[in-house]
Each structure stands twice: as structure tokens, then as C-alpha cells.
Amino acid sequence: MVFSETSKIYDPLGMVAPIVVLFKVLFQESWCYGLGWDDPLPEALCKRWCNYMGELHHLKQLQIPRYISYPSKPVELLGFSDASTVACAAVVYCRVHAEGSYAIKLIAPKTRVAPLKPISVPRLELNAALLLTKLITLVKESLTLTISNIVCWTDSEIVLHWLSAPPRKWATFVRNRTAEILDVIPRSQWRHVRSEDNPADCASRGILPTELIEYTLWWSGPSWFALPEPSWPSNTKLNISSSNPLVLVEENHKAAIVLCANEIDNPLLLLSSKISSWWRLIRIVAYCIRFINKKRRRREGYSDYELQQARIQLLKGAQAHAFFKDIDQLQNLQQLHCKSTLIRYSPFIDESGVLRVGGRIKHVDINYNIKFPIILPKDAKISLLIVRHKHEINMHAGVEATFALVRQKFWILGCRNLVRKVIFGRKTCFLQRRTTSTQLMGNLPSARVQPSRRFLHCGLDYAGPVRIKYSKTRNPKIGKAWFAIFVCLSTKALHIELESDLTTDAFLASFRRFIARRGKPSDLYSDNGTTFHSAKRALNELQRLSTFHEDRAEVAQSLANEGVNWHFIPPSAPHLGGLWETGVRSIKLHLR
After folding, report:
1. Percent of the chain with pLDDT over 90
2. Please, which pLDDT band fits residue 253 given cuts at 50, 70 and 90?
3. Residue 43 backbone dihedrals phi, psi, to 5 degrees
4. CA-CA-CA-CA torsion sign (566, 572, 575, 578)
5. Is the N or C terminus of the chain more exposed, i.e. has fewer CB atoms within 10 Å?
6. Looking at the predicted structure, is the pLDDT value of residue 470 above 90?
7. Strand pairing partners for 90?
8. In this predicted structure, what is the pLDDT of residue 543?
9. What is the pairing mode between strands 478-488 and 457-469?
């Protein structure tokens, strides 16, 4: 209803803008409450709404002359801008000199509510000045009269100060708006006015219809409009200074660039911190050494001597940065300090000036780098590059393998942690270490978890064949034999019986021997032969024992007479017989 009634006020030229702005502000506040179209207004807003609506009928008394001036006379456009915390306003008048006096007419006002985002009053005043600039541009394009002069007023000294300086001096918000204003209206046409003489003040705050009808400042402008321009209030010097906080906050402060030069004893340390490859770092240093030695002759590659010299320079630079005190003491043939981190390694300096680990294995016939590895600090960049290089050239080896490869030439303090950091931080190695999901197995049968006499519940499987001698003569006959493996389900104990063939009688004989030795089981478990279908040809005879129904039935009947229950696992389910399959594996492992 608020929006509907506000829209009924037909004012295309904005002549009653001080009244309409009250309804605009009211509508904005109702939107902030989150009200729907049909929701009632809060009590505070409802009282204001009723007060405004009760005053609207006074607008019927208002008469506004539409005639502006004589067509042959030049016209002056005079504009005012003002802003409050709730709205911005601009108003444009025309002044024509005719018949010894000045005729002042209201042409076009414009209002705009302040944004919901909090914004300072000087910025709102600047928005009002920009609104006035756009309004004057619109009036100039609409009128067909001759415009002789344009003068604009604002009561904000800060806005005038912003307009007096180049736009590039200010921050983005002020810079963009001042540039747009000065493109249309130059600074010489902007003046300061007191708030009491500013007609736009009532439009930025809003007044009721009864007050607007008799408000001559709105309809005719300030009283000095009727005087010649030299008699207008002088545009005195602004009282605001550049040190005002409201001005300083909008200045475009450029960040000061400070160059700090650090004195580095060894430039190789700075170079190593910018290179991510050990091999590339060596080649760069080798090129630098070639340049220093004035070997400018172009070559296809680097010699082994040049690369070796580059390695030595890099290693010496890292050691000199981390162990300079220890190196100085060793060069002066002094004893290391008792709190030195290298005292436990008995270090010495070799012929190339590289610090190495000492020891008592000088006469061992192995590589010199293995006997006396090069000492490096763990926080040096080249230590990280060396570990990374060893890890990559050895096909992304694991922690222990990479650690052993590094130790063959270098003794990095805290090397194991550094190796872990390199390997665990690489995406390729992380993806290789990920584990695959495994199937969650079912519950174990009661025979596996209930305590019982050994071999009371047992599993059965065959292993073989194996080749055996039938006699101890010089040329014995070689034959085949099989193992019948009985596994206790409770204790996982194994009982092995040797069989000469895979017949039913041979199995029953081995089973009787098993009972005589271990006691009669109550339950016997085995597979039903489907696990042997794809076995090798050498196991075909073993398959016959488990697959023929006649033999299996005969064995089962014999066991039933003995009071033994024979259970067959389901087909294609070898995991149910994992216990005796493990026993078969153990037998084969020891017979290799």
C-alpha cells in the first residue's frame, strides 16, 4: 500500500520533491524491516505514514507557473546540491534579466535516497554534486534556449576542496566522481553557499506539504538571486585545510617501495634458494665458473671436471654458512668445542676443502665417499635438493631406500626426517602409498573360537604330488606321493599323513592312522573339489578323489559309522577353507 500510494503522486518534473522524498525514505525503511507486500507497517512507521497522508490534500492549493522566460533573452542556469544522512538532492533554477529586473523560475529538482551501506556525509555531498551535474546536463539538452552562464553551489567545503585538486590525488571513490563532475562543470563555476541559503537542503531532508507551499526559498531561490551577480555573496576562501582528517582519508596514498640490500657472503646460497633442481643448479654454477675463468668458447656440454667443481663450490658454501666456527677451528688445528654438533662425527677437511665425517675405517677398500661422507646441515636448500634428486632418479624409492642412497655420499644431519618430508610431501608418492579397500569378512565359525580338545574339529586338504624313492638301491624307482593335511580348527596344529595314491582306501587308511594318533574328531571340513578344476595336469588324480560322488559318498558313509560329520564348503568359496590352505602353503614352503 505504501508503494502504491506513493506512485499515485504524479510529479514528472520533481516540483514537490521535498514531499516525495519523505515517502521514498519511508519505503526504504519498510524494506529494511523485511516486510512483505501485505504485511502491516510497524507502529513508528505507521504514525509517520498517516501524518504524511493527512497532509497530501494541501497540494491541491499549489500552483506552479510553467512559463520560463522570453525566447530572445539569454538564460542563466543556477544549481544547488545538498545531502543528509537519508537522501541527496539537487535543484536547478533559471534566471532571466528583462525589463530592469530578474525573473527566477524553478526548472527541475531531483532527489535520491542514501544507500543502505554506511557512507560518510562528505561522500554523500559529493554524490549530490554529481547528481546536480547530471541534472544540469539533462536540462541543457532539453531546453532550446540560449544558456549564457552556469553557476553551481554546495554547502560542503570538503567537496569544493576535492574539486580544487586534480582527481588523481584522491582515492578511487572520490577520483571517479570528481573527474566526472569537472568534465561537465569546471571548478571556476562551483561556489560555496550557506546551508540557510541552500534550497536543496529541504529536499535532502524532506518537509510536509503545508510547509512547502509557503517555503519561498524552494520556489524562488535565495533572496540575492534578484541582485546582479557582483552583489552576490562573495566566494570567500575555504576554511578547510589539507590536513583535515576528512580530507586526508580520501587521499591516494601510494605505497612506498623500499629496497633492502642484504650482504651475502656466498651468492651461491641465494642462487640455490631460487632453483628447484639439484642437477640444474650444478649446471648453472658450472656455467658461472666457466664465465669467471673466461672460457667463453662455446661448447656442446660441460666436462666432468666442471661439474665436479660446481658441486664442490655448492657444498663448501652450504658448509661455510652452517659450520663456519667448526671449519675455522679445524683449519687452525684446534679442538672442536664440546657443545659443537659435529664433535661426535670426528670431522676433517679433505683436499678440496669439503668437510667430511671421520672414522677408523681409512684402510677399508670401499669408495671414498662411503667411508667419509660429506657433512651437510639439514636446513640447507641443497640438502633438500639432493634428497629430492636421489628420490626421483631411483624411481621414487621409499624412505629407507632413499635414506640409504643419500648416505652413500652425504651425511645430512637429521636426514631421515628430511627424507620423510620430501617423500610424504610429493603427490606422486602419496598416490602410490594409498591402500585399496578390502572386503570385510564375516564372523568366524563356532569351531574356530570355542575352546575344545585338539583335533576335535579339523579341516582336511591334500598337498602334492612330491617325488619319492621306493627303495635305497643304486637306481631306485621314483614315484609320486601326496600329503593328507589335517588342521585343528581350535589350535591350528597340523597333522601330516603320507599317501602313495589318491584312492578312497588310501585316504581311509590315513584317516584311521590319524584317529589312532590324535583321537577321533567330531567334525571334519574340506572343499568339494571345485577348487581343483583349473589346476595343472599333475593334480588330476587329486581332483578325482574330491569330485567323484561315489567315492565321496563312500568316505562320508564310513565316517558316519565312526561318528564323524563331514562338512563340505560351498563351491567357489576358497576363503572358507583358508585355514587348511595356509597349512598346504607351509608344507610346500618347507619342501622347496
Report:
1. 36
2. low
3. -60, -40
4. positive
5. C
6. no
7. 81, 110
8. 42
9. antiparallel
- DSSP secondary structure, 327-389, as one string: HHHHHTT-PPPTT-TTGGG--EE-TTS-EE---S-TT-SS-HHHHSPEEE-TTSHHHHHHHHH
Give the Cα separation of 35 and 38 in Å (integer).
8
**In this structure, which amino acid lies at residue 573?**
A
169-173, 410-414, 431-435: segment of lowest average pLDDT = 431-435
Provide the CA 291 distance to its chain's centre, in angstroms.
Answer: 43
Taking residue 271's Cβ as centre, other Cβ atoms within 10 Å add up to: 17
Which position has the higher pLDDT, 577 or 5? 577
Q: Which phi and psi angles does 23 have, rounded to 5°?
A: -70, -35
CA dist 313 and 375 (Å) reads 14
Q: What CA–CA distance (Å, rounded) separates 87 from 321?
A: 67
Q: Which of 133-171 are b and which e, b meaning 16 or more Cβ less than 10 Å from the residue's Cβ? A: bebbeebeeebebeeeebbbbbbbbbbbbbbeeebeebe
Q: Residues 203-230: what's their mean pLDDT?
A: 88
3-state secondary structure 536-550: CHHHHHHHHHHHCHH
User: Which set of grid coordinates corresponds to residue 394?
Assistant: 631411483
Quote the distance between the C-alpha of residue 557 and its chain's center: 72
pLDDT of residue 8: 77
CA gap 105, 95 in Å, rounded: 7
